[in-house]
Amino acid sequence: MILSQFEEHSVFSQLDTFGHQKLVYCSDPGTGLKAIIAIHDTTLGPALGGTRMWPYKSESEALHDVLRLSRSMTYKAAITGLNLGGGKGVIIGDSRLHKSEALMRRYGRFIENLNGSFITAEEVGTNPRDMEYIRMETKYVTGVPESIGGSGDPSPVTARGVFMGIKACLKECFGNDSLAGKAIAVQGIGQVGENLVSLLRNENAKVYISDINEERLAQIAQKYGAIAVANNSVFDLDIDIYSPCALGATVNTETINRLKCSIIAGSANNQLADEVVHGKMLLEKGIMYAPDYLINAGGLINCYSEIAGFNKKKTFQMAENIYEATRKVLQKSKQENIPANEAANKIAEKRIEDIRKIKASY
Ligand code: NAD
Fold first, then answer.
1. DSSP structure class, residue 251
2. Do residues 23 and 38 make contact, with C-beta atoms less than 8 angstroms apart?
3. What's 24's DSSP letter?
4. Looking at ligand 1, which atom is closest to the CA of residue 296?
5. Alpha carbon of 155 to ligand 1 centroid (Å)
6. Span 155-297+309-314+322-349: which CATH code?
């Protein structure tokens, strides 16, 4: 180690801490582009990750976000069995004020210069139109609209993956994966939530739904025969499964103490307010938790399919593999008496290490 103590928060030391391979700062005064691309690990394949546009208060905040998010993409691809690495891009700016065709295309040229080691997709603050602009400068972009040959809306695939994750939990918890008569609360009935409600109702589950959008709540309740409930009452319902499909951090000390369910499985990212504290609390309380980054991997699978040229049927089949992957995680969690999120991390790390070794030999 040649860095002095004074440099412990330097960019290099942060790259060491997170285990990143490469960081690219993209600057173009002409378009106002200020972006950072982080490539975390490419052992399994090219680093894939969305590009977020956000009005970060400081460069260090943007750096921290891109390092954290890119690393989580490595784990997501690995646990899902995809041949992809983890990466992420962040553009510093307000997407409503600072976005332009030229800025997006300039960003696309930076991606082109990475020669395929980074592939991007839409994320918070970017949309399919932005991906079209990036596509004008590089082929290393996915999640473009179906009208120009892309895989389109990932939500049905994500919902299918979440549905399979829920069934895997049922199997491990009750010995069979039937949803008939099981009570489930889906919190957030947006793109993913609605598709999930449809799948659950098709298998005769008793479905409670909540959302802050009351008009939509009433519509979805009527369309699928679901029971609309007040958003905050979700944590007090007598249910088998709680499915967070809106926001992160809804599984926290307060809600864990209130929840009466046996299973938590939903699409929202970062469901545990604190991975270590709340993963352990769930284990101790005997609530089965399907790690969010595994069961919501349908969006990533959709992107992977687009790159690999798979059709919709194959894409949905890949989302169904989430069933076995979730069971494996839950079994490891039980055998080793460790939180499910920790078990998932261990499986992901082992896959990366195993593949790293075979790539080192000829
Ligand atoms: P969406 O924006 O279409 O739907 C979110 C829904 O949640 C909306 O109906 C909104 O009104 C509701 N909502 C917002 N705040 C709420 C609150 N406090 N309480 C209850 N409801 C609230 O989003 P989506 O695409 O359905 O994604 C849902 C979640 O799944 C998000 O956390 C997203 O990051 C995650 N996710 C989505 C995909 C995908 O393919 N769309 C993939 C992976 C993860």
1. B
2. yes
3. E
4. 43
5. 10
6. 3.40.50.720
Work out the average pLDDT over 163-182: 98
pLDDT-derived band at 299 (thresholds 50, 70, 90) equals: very high
Distances (CA, A) of 169 to 28, 312, 325: 48, 25, 11
In the block, which residue shows the tokens 């299918």?
A: 160
CA separation for the pair 284, 193 (Å, rounded)? 28
Taking only the tens place, the pLDDT of each residue in 121-159 is 998 899 989 999 999 999 999 988 888 778 888 999 999
Q: What order do you get walking across the sheet with 118-122 strand by strand?
A: 22-28, 33-41, 85-92, 47-54, 118-122
| Residue 214: partners with Cβ closer than 8 Å, 6 or more residues away | none
Q: Is the CB of 190 under 6 A from ligand 1?
A: yes
Please give the pLDDT value at position 359. 86
Compute the 3-state secondary structure of the chain and give helix, strand, coil in percent, each to the nearest 5: 50, 15, 35
Dig out the tokens for 293 from the structure: 């980054």
The owner of tokens 């943007």 is: 62
The residue with tokens 């680093």 is: 47
Contact 271, 252 (CB under 8 A): no
Give the H/E segment covering residue 215. helix 214-224
pLDDT digits (tens, 9 = 90+) for 197-243: 999 999 999 999 999 999 999 999 999 999 999 988 999 999 999 99
Nearest CA residue ID for atom 35, ligand 1? 268
Structure tokens at 191: 């793109």
Range(s) of the chain covered by CATH 3.40.50.10860? 12-70+85-148
For residues 250-258, average pLDDT:
97
Ligand 1 centroid–CA 267 distance in Å is 8
Catalytic residue (choose from 22, 34, 57, 88): 88
CATH number for the domain whose boundaries are 12-70+85-148: 3.40.50.10860
Altogether, the residues listed in the chain come to a count of 362
Residue 88 designated active-site: yes
